[in-house]
């Protein structure tokens, strides 16, 4: 019998997205699946809408908005399955999107997590920001992806159609072995949202498993459905969580020099934004740094740390993505990474 796949869609006031994209998920051709909507204490009519129009969908209602990390952690304790798919509500899937990834993960039991190819919903020939064809990370902890370097999203010309190990799988559509999700204590609740999937994949690799991108599976992501790009809260979470992620997953010796260097680079970026009139960005970065110090002093015990540190990391770029992109002017993953291997 085919492994059971539980497709878990986290929802917060996303009734319109559910109406638009849930039918595509239900039309998936994979037979042994369960579709679940985790409602993060929505104040719209999402739950009533689901009960009326999609009675075949299981609903898990949370009493308060626990964010991306907390929402999944709480709800997935109630879900028995071989695989979980953490799927954003603003993703359109193709009918056969599940089969290629499950086939790949069943053939190689060391693959702990995997993502499909993510393309833009409105520009279907272009990679989507939140994961593209698989996530990488540079030596200072800056994430990027096959097909996306900072804000530059490449056109999909099938240049990244090979299934390959990567550093992180996108939380917009991440397949993960259910047993491993729980053994690694899930996502870090303290993150609330943003970069928790990168942190999880880092801990997954340190535990001896690999993360893959499987471009034979394709989905289309709207993006920015909960917090739009440039939102102060989004900037704050990204900067704070990235520093926490570095502090948790690197060795003490690495953290000792990398984190101060990152704070310096973040500060330069913040001052640059201030002089260009982006005051909200500036204040969000400063607040993120203060929140990171608070985490170090008082909140470390609230986070999830690696269960092991023996695994080999893949999808790491040993140089600076900032230098290659902003100083040397390189725009694509091929220009930056492939030529450096």
Your description of this structure?
With 341 residues, the protein is an alpha/beta fold. The protein has helices spanning 15-26, 46-53, 67-76, 99-107, 178-183, 196-206, 232-249, 252-275, 279-299, 321-327, 333-336, and strands spanning 5-11, 33-39, 58-61, 83-88, 91-93, 111-120, 135-138, 143-145, 148-149, 152-153, 164-166, 173-177, 210-221, 316-317. The longest helix has 24 residues, at 252-275. The N and C termini lie far apart (41 Å). 45% of the residues are buried. The model is unreliable at 225-229 (pLDDT under 50).
Residue stretches low in confidence (pLDDT < 50, at least 5 long) are 225-229
Number of helices, counting only DSSP H or I runs of 4 residues or more: 11
Q: What is the H level of CATH, i.e. the homologous superfamily of the domain at 5-221?
A: Spore Coat Polysaccharide Biosynthesis Protein SpsA, Chain A
Shape, please? globular
CATH class descriptor of the domain at 5-221: Alpha Beta
Q: What is the CA-atom radius of gyration, in angstroms?
A: 19 Å
Calculate the terminal CA-CA distance, rounded to whole Å.
41 Å
Determine the fraction of residues in helical runs and give it as a percent range: 25-40%
Global structural class: alpha/beta
Report the biggest beta sheet as strand number plus sense, adding barrel if it closes. 9 strands, mixed
Count of DSSP strands: 14
CATH architecture of the domain at 5-221: Alpha-Beta Complex
What is the string of SSEs from the N terminus onward?
EHEHEHEEHEEEEEEEHHEHHHEHH
CATH topology of the domain at 5-221: Spore Coat Polysaccharide Biosynthesis Protein SpsA, Chain A
